[in-house]
Every structure is written in C-alpha cells, then in structure tokens.
Amino acid sequence: MSEIKKPRGRAAKAAAPGKPWHHLPDGSFRNPPGCPSRGQGRLKYAAPFFVEMLRQGARKVDVPEGHVVPAMEAAAGLASHMAGTGDFLTWLGHACFLLRQSGVTILTDPYLSDNAGPGALGPKRFVEPGIALHALPPVDVLIVSHNHYDHLDERALAALPGKARMTVIVPLRLAAFFRQRGFVHVIELDWYEHHDIRGLRFTALPVVHWSRRTGLDTNKTLWAGFSIRSAAHHTFFGGDSGYGPVFEQLGRDYGPFDTALLGIGAYAPRKMMKASHATPEEAIQMSLDLRARRAVGMHWGTVLLTVEPPFEPPVRFRQAGRDKGLSDEDVWIMRIGETRPLPPASSWPANA
Questions:
Q1: Measured between alpha carbons, how far is 181 from 109 in angstroms, rounded to an integer?
Q2: What CATH number corresponds to the domain at position 202?
Q3: Which CA distances in Å does 314 have to 14, 211, 309?
Q4: Does some domain include residue 65?
Q5: Cβ distance 187 to 169 under 8 Å?
Q6: In angstroms, what CA-CA distances link 110 with 99, 179, 318?
Q7: pLDDT, averaged across the chain
Q8: How far, in Å, are 33, 42, 78 from residue 11 at the CA level?
Q9: How many angstroms separate the CA atoms of 164 and 175, rounded?
C-alpha cells in the first residue's frame, strides 16, 4: 500500500482556477497527489543512462525462441477468433493490443513502425509486430494513452485504414493531432470523463506518467489509462505508468476489473524511471490495488527503451504474482502475435 505524501515543489502548486488538481495554471498537467515526481534524481543519472543506451543500441538482442508467434500462425489464430463471437485479446507488441469486447474491435497504442522516434531516429524495435498493420481487421475504436513516440506512432497512424469510420479516444489536447491526419470521429477526454459506444463505456483514468512530443511541449497534453466496461467484461488499459496511491482509489471507485493490461518493462535505472514506468513487482501491486482478476504484462520485449535486461520483466512479473499468491493462469505473459480468449465475468467463481 502506498502512503500519500504531502506534495512539495511543483506538485504543491495550486491548480488552475476552477480546474481539477492535475490542471496547472500554466496550462500543463501533473500527476495525481502523492505520486513520484519525474524531476527527482534525473540529472544525476541522465549521462550514464544515455551512454548505456547508446551501447545497447549497438548490440543485437538475443530473442528467445517462442517469444514471437510465426506470422502465419498468428494470422490464423486471430482469424479463428474473429470468426467467433467471444471476447479476445491479441498482443501485437509493446502496449499495442487488438481487443474485441462485446463485438467491438479496439486497437490500443499502435506503435507498429521500426523506430520509437521521429523519422529514423529513436530506439529501433528488435521484433516485428505480431500482426502486420495491413492484415489487421477493421478497427471500431482506437485508444491512444499519450503522445510519446512508442505509443503515438504517426507513421502507423498514416497507414491505418478506416479513418472515416473508426472512433478515436484520446486524453485532453490530443484530438487536433488526429483530426489533422484525417481521423473524423475523435473524442477527447479528461480524467474521469467517459464516452459510450455500442454498449461499451470508455473512461479515461489517471495514471502516473508525463507527456512530450518535442522539446517545447512537456506535459502540455494529458496522459491516461482507460477503463473499458461492457456487460460481460471490464478491462483496464494502463498505457504507461509508474506506481502510486491512485491505483487504490481506482480500485475502490472503478473496480473490480476482469483484465488489467499493465506495463512491466522500461524501469531501470529506478531513480530516473520510477515516475514513468512500474517495475514488474509494482505492476502486480497495481493489479491488486485495481482489484483485477487477471494481470497481463505489456510494454516489454519489443524495443529497448531502458537498461534492464530485455527479457527480465516477465520472469520478475510471474514471480511477483506467485509471491502475492496469484496463480500463473491469472498472470499472463503473452507471446507477440498470440491471441487468447477473454472469459466473461460470469465465468469467474462467485467469491473471486
């Protein structure tokens, strides 16, 4: 359980007049009360971090056998589930999932290009997407959690078909980005606001992160996680997040969740990353705070963003679940390209 500490520095500032806590007078946003500050310790660790990242970038990643589903097998698995009527989840890599819930096909944070950066800059992915963009089924709803390049992929969005038919749901001040690129139906949400589509309720929820697309727009657009609730299933999509006391509040006010999609990678060095990304152990605690029955690890095994060993996160995630008394069946480590059915809420034991 996280203790809510008295805010200091920037976090102690009064909110913009007439606005919620996370709106600051200068028009920027901040994390929920009691959450770690991104400014703490960053300069001290920045230089060695970037040196190590350059060293890692020159090294080939040894991808374990079975981490990626072969392309034809992945396509066949998705097609089989698309032909049915049940809910399912396909991991395309990183924070990108194809989710079908109550007949609605949802795509999350579609980072599907080679680099997580502008043009040819930025870290290069070391595995291909689980399903090629051109092979995806028609998307009904696109969710983007924030504007970092490994979540808001302009090249993938340019190639994504169906811009006139799909609904895009984004946090505050990101709608213009999508409308300028041909998306017609764009919904912008503040934290705790919701939008209903075909029996599903999409609610933007606070998480612990930040935003920046250029050097001049830090925290000028909002970041969020999302609750996706239907009659048969309740999903939490975490986007990017560090750990903080806000997750207990979300569990009380919005839980329980059937499935929580949680970031488990990009956490080292800890002094730099604690306000941006959770450790695998913190992700398990998030799932418990959220009252989630199933935790799915994401944001790992696709691109090198930080300095921990690239295949350490799932090992620690599964062990953390066991240490908390969770069964392996409720702590999912998916293969890139894998599709799994999502059992309806009614299939859980009455006391779950």
A1: 16
A2: 3.60.15.10
A3: 40, 26, 11
A4: no
A5: yes
A6: 12, 17, 25
A7: 91
A8: 8, 16, 45
A9: 15
Residue 199 within a domain: yes
- Rounded distance between C-alpha atoms, residue 204 and residue 188, angstroms: 9
Provide the pairing of β-strand 200-205 with 225-229: antiparallel
Query: Is the pLDDT score of 252 beyond 70?
Result: yes
Q: Convert the pLDDT of each residue in 141-182 to its tens digit.
A: 999 999 999 999 999 999 999 999 999 999 999 999 999 999
CB half-sphere exposure, 323, CA atoms < 13 A: 12
Q: How far apart are CA 63 and CA 303, in angstroms?
A: 11
Q: Sheet with 257-263: list strands edge to edge.
A: 194-197, 200-205, 225-229, 234-237, 257-263, 292-298, 331-332
Q: Report the alpha-carbon distance of residue 226 to residue 205 in Å, rounded.
A: 5
Q: Using H for helix, E for strand and C for coil, what is the string for 255-274?
A: CCEEEEEEECCCCCCHHHHC
Residue given tokens 């418990």 in the structure block: 288
The 8-class DSSP code of residue 130 comes to S
The Cα 194–Cα 198 span in angstroms is 13
**What domain range includes position 193?**
81-344
Give percent of the chain with pLDDT exceeding 70: 89
For 50, 173, 211, 213, 300, the CA distances from 217, given in Å and listed in that order, are 21, 11, 8, 7, 26
How far is CA 109 from each of CA 31, 299, 341, rounded to the nearest angstrom?
A: 20, 11, 20
Q: What is the CA radius of gyration of the chain?
A: 19
Going by their DSSP bridges, the two strands 339-341 and 88-93 should be labelled as antiparallel
pLDDT at 352 > cutoff 70: no
* Residue 186 falls inside a structural domain: yes
**Cα-to-chain-centroid distance, residue 216:** 24
Residue 172 in domain? yes
Place of tokens 């579609």: 110
C-beta of residue 246 within 8 angstroms of C-beta of residue 223? no
Shortest CA distance to 283 belongs to which of 242, 224, 253? 242
Number of domains present in the structure of the chain: 1
